[in-house]
# Entry
Amino acid sequence: MPAGTVELAGALLGCVLVRDCPDGRTAGRIVETEAYVLDDPASHAYRGLSKRNASMFLPPFHAYVYKIYGTSFCVNVTSETQGAGAAVLIRALEPLEGLSCMEARRGTTRVRDLARGPGRLCQALAIDLALDGADLLTGSQLWLAARPASALRAGKSKRIGITKAAHRLLRFYEKGNPFVSGPKGLSP
# Structure
C-alpha cells in the first residue's frame, strides 16, 4: 500500500474501478487522478470535518462521493489514516466492461466520452451518494481491482478546475491515453 496521498494518486493509475448494479457490471481502468493532500486549501477537508466531507476522514480505500455544481457526482479514494482528511479524485477511466450499460446511462455511443472526466465517470458507473463511505477493498457494489502487470507511462501536471493551490503538480495521468480528460496541453 502506498505511504500517502500523492503516492496513492500515482499508484491508482492502471487499477480497475468496478461497479455492480442490478442492470449489470461496469468497469474501467483508471487513467487519471488528482491528489488532495493534508493541509491543501483546494481540499474539501481543509476547513475540517463536516457532514458533507465525513467520508474523506475514513481510513484509506473508502469512497468519498460528493455532488458538484448540483448536477454531477465525483468519486474519490481516501488516502490517509482515519481522521486525517485526504483523498484522491478519480478523474477518468478507460471503459473495459459494460459499455452498453455506460452508453445508456450517458446517452451517447461515443466510447471516448463515456468516463472521461469525473462527472461523466460517475454517471457511466451509476455512482452517487448512496456509495459515499463504501469500502473499496471489500465492497460488493463498488470496488478497486488490482492493476494488470503491464507497464504504463505516467505523467503529472497541475490540477484541473480549481483556483486554490492549482499550480501544484498533483494530477497524474497515463501519457498518450485518449481517455484522459482536460486540455491536451496538460497531458503531453
